[in-house]
Amino acid sequence: MPSAILSPKITDATLRVDFERLWSDIHQTAEWGAVPDSYGMARLALSNDDKAVRNWFIAKATKIGCEVSVDAIGNIFAILPGINKDLAPIAMGSHLDTQFNG
User: Fold this and answer.
1) What's the 3-state SS for the chain?
2) Per residue of the chain (102 residues), what is the pLDDT tens digit?
3) Among 66, 77, 52, which Cα is nearest to 5's?
4) β-strands 76-79, 67-70: how paired?
5) Taking the alpha carbons of 4, 7, 11, 15 in that order, is the dihedral positive or negative?
6) Residues 6+ apart with CB under 8 A from 30
7) pTM for this entry
8) First CA to last CA across the chain, in angstroms?
9) Contact 64/5 with Cβ under 8 angstroms?
10) Where are the domains positioned within the chain?
């Protein structure tokens, strides 16, 4: 199973983080809101950079088969359906926006 692509059809319980892809995604998304001559970012909520990274995330999630929805205040829910609906779901979350120079 290639570690670079997740699929709802995964049957191997040995999932691994693709560190090269993760590092690349971190650097790619850091371009939206990058502060020149620093390591900081300023991707404030509701800014154009925030919208760009949200669109990027939705495209990535959709590409791997997630069901994506956005609620009335802009929270994005990306659900990757599992094979066995009897098992408890796994959940995680994060932010795509930052504090100034975060």
Assistant:
1) CCCCCCCCCCCCCCCCCCHHHHHHHHHHHHCCCECCCCCCECCCCCCHHHHHHHHHHHHHHHHCCCEEEECCCCCEEEECCCCCCCCCCCCCCCCCCCCCCC
2) 444 455 555 555 666 888 999 999 988 998 998 888 877 888 888 899 999 999 999 999 999 899 999 999 889 999 988 888 888 888 888 888 777 765
3) 66
4) antiparallel
5) positive
6) 41
7) 0.74
8) 36
9) yes
10) 19-79
- Tokens 């800014």 -> residue: 47
- The token duo for 44 is 């404030």
The C-alpha atoms of residue 42 and residue 101 are separated, in whole angstroms, by 5
* Amino acid symbol at 45: A
Tokens found for residue 58:
């939705």
User: Tokens for 8?
Assistant: 């709802």
By the 8 A CB rule, do 7 and 63 touch? no
- Pair 66, 80: CB distance under 8 Å: yes
